[in-house]
Amino acid sequence: MNIVILAGGFGTRLQSVVRDVPKPMADIDGTPFLELLMRELCFLDPARFVLCVSYKKEIIQNYFKDNFLGIPVRYSVEQEPLGTGGAIKQAFDLYNLDNALVLNGDSYIAADYSHFWSQNKNEKLAVMLKQVDNANRYGRVDVHDGHIIDYHEKQDVAQPGLINAGIYKINRDLFDKKLPQKFSFEKDILEPIIPQIKPTYMVADDYFIDIGLPESYAAAQHELKSVIYGNAQNRALFLDRDGVINEDIGYLHKINDCKFIPGIFDFCRKYTQDGYKLVVVTNQAGIAKGKYTEQDYKLLTEFIHNKFKDMGCEITAEYYCPYHIDGMPPYNRNSFYRKPNLGMILRAAKEHNINLSQSTLVGDNENDILAGRAAGIGETIRVINERNMRGSPKTIANKIIKINQR
C-alpha cells in the first residue's frame, strides 16, 4: 500500500494563529499535526508515504527527511499550486503508483483504514464518508446499495446527512483521460463521475476534526492527543519469544521441540502479580523464508499460551511479524512491524492502553532493545545466552540477565 498525503496548502484561514509553518505542521501540544496523522497511518504497514508539498516545503522535508518510524518517505513537490487533483496525479506519475490511499494532511478521522482498503481493493475509486448534523454546510452525498449516487452543493438549509471526509482509495486508471496540470479532484473528477461509476464508500462514525479554522485548531490542541492515545494506565512486560520464552534452536515451529527457558514462568509471574500485562512481540522471519507456515506458528503459539496460563502467568496478547526483505512472496518486504521498527509495540500500547514509560521489555537481541528504547519503554532488559549468543553482547539495555541454555 502507498499512502499519499496532501500537505501543500497555504492554510489561509489559519494564518492568524499558525504563521511560520505549513498548516499540516501546526503544533498539537508539542507534536506536529502531520506527525500524529502519519503515526496512526503507520499501523497500515504501508510501503511508503508520499507527501505532496509546496508552501514552506522545506520545513516538512527537513522534519521527516526520507524515513518515518521505519517507513520510507518520498516527496512530490509542487513548484506552483496544482489543486488537489493535480497534486494527486503528479504523485501517482512521479512514483508510478498503481493505487494509493489518499488523505488530506490537515484533517484526522478515527476510522478502520485497513477495512476501508481491503473492502475496496478491487475498486477504481472508494470514498470515506462521515455522518454530520448539517451536511449541507459541506455538500451532501447521497448513497444507495453500497454506492455513492449523487452529490449536492452546499446549501443554506441545515440538514443531517453524509459528507465526503476527504479520504480516498484511488486507482491509477482514474486519471486515464486527458487532464490539465492544475485541477480539483473533487470538482473535476469526483463529482462529474459519480453518476457514471458510482464509487463505493465506507461511513466513519467516529471522531473527526479538520484543523483548517482557528476554532477547530484550538479544539485539536485540546483533545486530539487524548483521542489518539487514550488514557494509557496499564503497565506491560513485553517479551521477545525465541531466546527469552523458549530456547532458541533456530526457526522453532514444532511443539515437541519447544523447551522453555529456565525460570521464565517465575519471572513472568512476579510481573503479573504486580499488575503487568504480558505481551509477546516476536519477529518470525522463518515464515518469510519458508521454514514453516503461519499455521505452524499459530499452533505453537496456542501451546505456549496454554502453558503460561497453566503456570499462573497468562499472556494478554501476542504480536508477530512474518515479513523479511530476503523472504519469499508475499512476505519479502520491509515492515513497520519488524523489530527494530516499532509497529508491534505501538500497536499493543494502543490496543491495550499501555503506558510505555511504565513498562518493561525483555529481549535477547539488540534489535529488541533498540525497538523498546525508541518506543519509549521505561526499562529494557537484555538476555545473554552464553551457549548460543545472538548478536553482540554490547547493549544499550538498562539491565542484563545471563542464562545457560540446556
Count up the domains: 2
Distance between the termini: 44 Å
Q: Mean pLDDT, rounded to whole units?
A: 92
Largest sheet: 8 strands, mixed
CATH topology description of the largest domain: Spore Coat Polysaccharide Biosynthesis Protein SpsA, Chain A
Radius of gyration: 24 Å
Task: Give a nutshell description of this structure.
By secondary structure, the chain is of the alpha/beta class.
How is this fold's topology laid out?
Layout: E1 2-6, E2 27-28, E3 31-32, H1 33-41, E4 48-53, H2 57-64, E5 67-68, E6 71-77, H3 83-94, E7 99-104, E8 107-109, H4 113-119, E9 125-132, E10 140-144, E11 147-152, E12 161-171, H5 185-197, E13 200-204, E14 208-210, H6 214-229, E15 236-239, H7 264-273, E16 277-283, H8 285-288, H9 294-310, E17 315-321, H10 343-351, E18 360-363, H11 366-375, E19 379-385, E20 399-403
Parallel strand pairs: 1-4, 1-7, 4-6, 9-13, 15-16, 15-18, 16-17, 18-19, 19-20
Antiparallel strand pairs: 2-3, 5-6, 7-12, 8-14, 9-12, 10-11
Helix pairs in contact: 3-5
